[in-house]
Amino acid sequence: MQRDLVERAMARDHEAFSELARLSIRRLYAVSRLILRDEARAQDATQEALVAAWRDIATLRDPDRFEAWLHRLLVRECYREAHRERRRTIVEGRVRPITVTAPDPGYQNALRDQLERGFRRLDVEQRTALVLHHYLGYSFPEIADALHIPIGTVKSRVFRGTVAMRAAMDADASLPGLPEGRPA
Amino acid sequence: MNDPVDAIRLAQTSRVLTDWFENDAPRQEPIALLNATLARTAAVRPRSGWRVPGPWLRMAIPLRSATVPRLVLSAAMLAMLLSGLVAAGLLLGGVLPSPSVLPKPIGPRAIVVAPDGSGDTRTITEAVAMAADGDHVLIRPGTYREAVIVDKDISIRGDGPRKDIIVEAPPDSVLPGATRRTSYAFLLQAIDGSLANVTVVGQQVGTAIVVKGGTPTLEQLDVNVLGDWSKSPRGQALGIDRASVFLDDEKNTAHRAIAFDRGSGGVLRDSTLEGFLWFGAETTPIVQDSHLLDTCIEIAEAGAHPVFRRNEIHGCPHGWGVLVAQGAAATIDGNDIVAGDKPAPDPRPGIAVIVQTGALDVTITGNTIHDSDFGVSAPYAKQLVVDDNVVTANNNGLSVIGATGSVTENRIRENRGVGLLMGSGGDMEVVDNVIESNGTGILIDGITYPTLRGNTICRNERNLTRVGAAELTLTGNDVCPERSVDPFSAP
After folding, report:
1. pTM for the full model?
2. Complex ipTM above 0.90?
3. A62, B364, B389, B417: most buried by Cβ count inside 10 Å?
4. In chain A, positions 164-183, which contact chain B (CB-CB < 8 Å)?
């Protein structure tokens, strides 16, 4: 189904491309929102990625790799947006409640704040690697393939990002242990 | 990763991250974004690729010798080619229906508007009437004098240089339901579509673009209003007393570039405006990355809470940049703000940001506010947050008389009169600001006991002036000598 749409889009069928965009835009927007932590920039990145996809879709060599190619375009636009920041990062603190194992809302709020602050301190490459790995469920080879970087670099980014997030969560001594219980 | 405890902790972190991402990711379909994107792609011509897809004809290019492309026709391709030729023959013979009676393609259509008749229609109104939800209206260069009502989720986009695509409000148009002359060019009624890349011209009485409900995306627009500002009734209604502004009660509509009304949301971005930008009750749009020049932003009605990000706001000739009225709220973040001059015969600079008595929940962060009579005037505002701004080169910096909230981490410097004015009750936390090189650093008028902590108060002509019964010391702040005795100041 998707391959058929991609092939039609490659033949400049805008209807087919519209359907592909409709199928993928929620996921694209979610990924860019998670990476950039800013609604407006995420919208810009998503739109630019899709416009680039339409403009360059005829250069796609393998229709089955459309999704990975689209994610590569999106990441490129996210990098661009992240580096385009003009004045300051907007800290809005608008985070949806975590619904899992939340006996103590105060704890969850504190944890979300810690995560938000820690994640914003990562560079955009590390944020991207973590989002692709933990949100999209990409394996290391898949991330390497999507981003055109060596697997070792992917592993390093994910590892360093995770360590930094762990450190951010541990930074506040008043924060209770993790939901599963912190090891002794 | 040799330590098993570390390994467990990192595994836990991974699980926390996965849960956090899953819960933090937006779940709604971004319909407006999709429509806006498809409108853009509809106007973009894809680049030609290195091959033609499909099974019927394929360029086989040898990897090692790419000098001469070779055509390869398989039996299947020949069969498909022949069947195509047969079908074409039947079509010519009238056996198959002609394309004009074939069912319309499913999915969004592009309807082209061109004044010379080269498109599908000559007017935008006709194109909107033809369109269905999801369709795209592309406007070719020309001048259109129309009052267009858009009540469908469609995208309308200029197809060409923006300056050459002009939609002007007819002077005699009247908004549906209005009882007097209220000209308009576009009325967007409860839609989730988009309007982009056009120049919209409004009349002196009326509104260029009216948004009523919905969440449209407005981008890459030039919006301006014809006529002489000094003749606008709004000019006669402005007065300043104790740093408050009183407007007439009449809900007049003069010189409005864009009005967001009736609970509308949406986005206005990457645009240039001249004229009032007006927000009615319960409106929550985002205005970002735009040039609002000669623009008075009026957040006029209760429950409105627009967001302004990264705009250049140079106020209109009625004497302010942003006005938040009673019962309204706003988030003003990362903008460059200067008030316009007040109208003749009093052409002094006005107030950059006015937060009127009874305004709630106004957040002013990360802005540069300068070259105005007052940078921020927020008398008796509630839950006011003024954080991380640069307030400079004004006659007076911040006035928060009677307000509650916080003033934190601002740089308030080189204002000719007072840097920070407080008094008449109020409950402000003033923390970690740099207040320097002003006429008077802090002026406290009346019985007020603000929290002053961690501020740097330096090189003002007077660091602190108390009027009335306020008893206050500056313990806990970094206070330098006043400028008159500062050995480091200029002679």
Report:
1. 0.57
2. no
3. B364
4. 165-166, 169, 178-180, 182-183
DSSP A179: T
| A99 closest CB neighbour out of B23, B36, B51 | B23
CB contact under 8 A, B33 and A43: yes
B464–chain A nearest CA distance, Å: 31
The type of residue at B227 is: G
Closest-CA distance of chain B to residue A171, Å = 14
Residue pair B136/A14 in contact (Cβ under 8 Å)? The answer is: no
Closest-CA residue of A relative to B105 is A15
Closest residue in A to B15 (Cα) is A134
Neighbours of B180 (CB within 10 A): 10
Question: Taking the CB of residue B207, how many other CB atoms lie within 10 A of it?
Answer: 29
Select from B303, B339, B342 the least CA-distant residue to B323.
B339
Residues 6+ apart with CB under 8 A from B377: B243, B244, B245, B351, B353, B354, B355, B399
Higher model confidence: residue B218 or residue A108?
Answer: B218
Pairing of strands B70-72, B58-60: antiparallel
When scoring B6, B31, B33, B220 by the number of chain A Cβ atoms within 10 A, the one with the most, hence best to mutate, is B33
> Which of B21, B109, B368 best tests the A interface by mutation, with the highest count of A CBs <10 A?
B21
Maximum CA pair distance of chain B? 102
Q: Considering only residues 123 to 162 of chain A, which have any Cβ-Cβ distance to chain B shorter than 8 Å?
A: 130-131, 134-135, 159, 162
Which residues of chain B are under the pLDDT cut of 50? Answer: 1, 49-79, 81-82, 85-105, 233-252, 485-491
Q: Which residues of A touch B34 (CB under 8 A)?
A: 21-22, 25
**Element (H or E) spanning B112, and its range?**
strand B110-113
HEC per residue, A65-105: HHHHHHHHHHHHHHHHHHHCCCCCCCCCCCCCCCCCCCCCH
Distance (Å) of CA B469 to CA B187, B445, B451, B465, B472: 55, 8, 16, 12, 10
pLDDT digits (tens, 9 = 90+) for B255-302: 778 888 878 888 888 888 888 888 988 888 889 888 998 888 989 888
